Amino acid sequence: MSGSHVALDFQTDLTVDGRQVRFLNIIDEYTREALATRPFRSCTADQLCTVLDDIIATTGRSPTHIRMDNGTEMTAYAMGDWCRFTGVDPSFIDPASPWQNGTCESFNGRFRDEFLTTEQLSMAKLKGSGTGTTVRQHARSPGTGGRLAHRVQHLQAPRLAGLPHPEAYRQQWTHQESTTPPTLS
Questions:
Q1: Residues 155, 157, 160, 166: is their CA dihedral positive or negative?
Q2: Closest Cα partner for 123 from 45, 10, 22?
Q3: Quick one: which of 52, 91, 102, 103 has the most CB atoms within 10 Å?
Q4: Can you say whether the dihedral through the CA atoms of 60, 47, 134, 12 is positive or negative?
Q5: Residue 25's closest CA among 46, 1, 3, 43?
Q6: Helix, strand, coil abundance in the chain, percent, nearest 5
Q7: Confidence band (pLDDT; 50, 70, 90) for 71?
Q8: DSSP code for 147
């Protein structure tokens, strides 16, 4: 992520009990890798900063820019402070201009088509922590469980033959000694 641009956005859906759930999707704009997809009933700027810190700790890479809309979580003082202290440049899109965050909007569309419209969602707590995770149930076979992270990996699978998976592409790119991105052929 060092030297990279990251896009983030929230996507809203309903759980089986009719309550709103918001998915925080964070995407690497170059590799199109989904760095995080986290469900929240509500998300504060502090929680958003924690997710970003987790991504940096997990990947060992820090973005140089974050593209996001002007939602309350993104414009809060906590997020501004986080950007200033980590040296990340916030890049806000214009109000009512989702096309300016096309990478994340594209992921959101695929996430809705391939996951949210085919699943019944209920919220559960991770053992020993206060963060939410998603337990999914297949619409055709109620009662079968699965993991959101596993499903998101399959959403990223390239549709065109011959293109590498975003994770494989990122690994190929980061293992090269030069700064020239690898070719897709």
A1: positive
A2: 22
A3: 52
A4: negative
A5: 43
A6: 35, 25, 35
A7: confident
A8: B
Task: Compute φ and ψ for 149, nearest 5 degrees.
Answer: -60, -40
SS3 72: helix
Confirm whether pTM is higher than 0.85.
Answer: no
Residue 20 pairs in a beta bridge with: 14
Q: Which residue has the tokens 């998976």?
A: 165
H helix runs in 3-158, sequence order: 45-59, 72-75, 77-86, 102-114, 148-155
Fold of 5-175: Nucleotidyltransferase; domain 5 (3.30.420)
96: Cα separation from own chain's centroid: 20
Residue 127 and residue 158: Cα distance in Å, rounded? 33
Residue of 59, 94, 72, 69 whose CA lies nearest to 170: 59
Q: CA 143 → CA 57, 111, 113, 122, distances in Å?
A: 34, 21, 21, 12
- Domain parsing of the chain, residue ranges: 5-175
* Rounded Cα–Cα distance for residues 143 and 5 (Å): 39
Q: What is the pLDDT of residue 144?
A: 31
